[in-house]
Design a protein that fits this description.
- By secondary structure, this protein is α+β, with helices and mostly antiparallel strands.
- The longest helix has 11 residues, at 16-26.
- The mean pLDDT is 90.
- The protein has helices at 16-26, 52-61, 82-92, 120-129; strands spanning 3-11, 31-38, 42-49, 65-77, 97-103, 110-117, 133-134.
- The relative contact order is 0.22.
Length: 143
């Protein structure tokens, strides 16, 4: 079960990120997770929100360059080595992780990770067969 991540391309200058978050806040869109990557000229904000379709449409109408990408949200035990075990499993099955970042707000004794893989369906199948709990979009507001 995938969730939709919104990637927003931003010019790398003061105030650009706050403009993005202001647009979301003014429209009552709650970010559940955020990751930033940058180069000298531009950045990419990757965000998880409760309703990605509405947020992507709003941002496009606000003249942001937006891409919606399916990703996996994993709920894993909050203990040393749990992420390593999952990454070793994926590597042993030939699943490539393109990027990953933490997702705040999970239940006690759990951690959440957003994972983008080269082959999302194959990665999802490997995780499901291993009993890794995937978080669906309907649960985002509850975490």
């Amino acid at each position: 079960m995938t969730i939709n991540q919104i990637s927003v391309f931003l010019e790398n200058k003061p105030g650009t990120l706050s403009g993005l978050t202001e647009t979301l806040a003014e429209n009552k869109i709650n970010m559940r997770a955020l990751s930033l990557a940058d180069t000298s000229d531009f950045g990419i904000a990757r965000i998880i929100v409760d309703n990605a379709d509405d947020a992507a449409g709003l941002l496009r109408n606000s003249e942001y360059v937006v891409k919606v990408t399916p990703v996996l949200a994993l709920e894993i035990p909050d203990e040393a080595g749990s992420l390593n075990g999952i990454l070793k499993l994926l590597a042993s099955k030939g699943c490539n992780v393109e990027y990953m970042y933490g997702f705040t707000g999970c239940r006690t004794n759990s951690a959440c990770m957003i994972l983008r893989a080269t082959d999302v369906p194959a990665t999802e199948k490997v995780l499901a067969e291993a009993g890794v709990r995937l978080v669906g979009s309907g649960e985002l507001g509850e975490l």
